[in-house]
From TrEMBL:
Essential subunit of the Sec protein translocation channel SecYEG. Clamps together the 2 halves of SecY. May contact the channel plug during translocation. Belongs to the SecE/SEC61-gamma family. GO terms for biological process: intracellular protein transmembrane transport; protein secretion; protein targeting. InterPro entries: Prot_translocase_SecE_dom_sf, Translocase_Sec61-g, Translocase_SecE/Sec61-g. The keyword Nucleus does not apply. Component of the Sec protein translocase complex. Heterotrimer consisting of SecY (alpha), SecG (beta) and SecE (gamma) subunits. The heterotrimers can form oligomers, although 1 heterotrimer is thought to be able to translocate proteins. Interacts with the ribosome. May interact with SecDF, and other proteins may be involved. It is a single-pass membrane protein. The gene is secE. The lineage of its organism: Archaea, Methanobacteriati, Methanobacteriota, Stenosarchaea group, Halobacteria. The chain crosses the membrane at residues 31-53. Signal peptide: none annotated. It comes from the Archaea. One of its GO terms (molecular function) is protein transmembrane transporter activity. One of its GO terms (cellular component) is endomembrane system. This is Protein translocase subunit SecE.
Amino acid sequence: MDVKYDLASYVRVLKMASTPSWNEFSQIAKVAGAGIFLIGLMGFVIFAVMTVLPGGI
């Protein structure tokens, strides 16, 4: 493991990184929120189906 090479590559990545603009941040937040909502909705639908099916059979 070459520590000097690893540190140099970490520093290079940190120099390239920048703070996102407000528009970029809000777009990422909307997409992440939509993904969380869809996963939760799918879980709720599966729960509702599994709850209703055993009672109907």
